[in-house]
Please model this.
Amino acid sequence: MKIICVESNYAGASSEPVVFMKNDSSLLKGNKPYYLPYFSKEIVGGAELVFRISRLGRNIQEKFAHRYYDAVALGMGLTAADLQRRLMAEGKPWEISKAFDGSAVISDFVSLEEIDDKDALGFTLEVGGVQVQAGNARDMQFSIDKIIAYVSQFFTLKIGDLIYTGTPAGAALLAKDTRVVGRIGERKLLDFNIK
Model:
């Protein structure tokens, strides 16, 4: 299983998606607590829509991309911001600041059959009882169909692969003993604690 992530999809000015990968050990499922790691003092997180690939495919045309995913979840991409800044300043790859264990929080999936308009999905994130993010799929620079068409040029998409579509402005610093709640529309999908 691959976890394919898109960077700066809400405020970007790129002509093509900026993509990076996470490991399967990055997944944090089932609203389990997230334990802050020792290697960073600045873990930040933001909510994003995650689509699940349901068919094998490569070199997929955008007009056919909707056939290749069947469900959406609410995810959180976590970043060790202090580590990322240092690595970028040194001109080094920053994968360890993005793909560490537990850095890809994910809710249960919702079938797209239950969704009226996948291209206008609204979502929110609360940290410590305060709403820090409100996003909508219509504000993405690259839609899920565009992302699939792009990444399938380079990677064969397989059943069960996940695409994290990027987070809007408002990523929050995560502090110990804080509760995180995320919703798609009115449906609460994330509800976990920071330890």
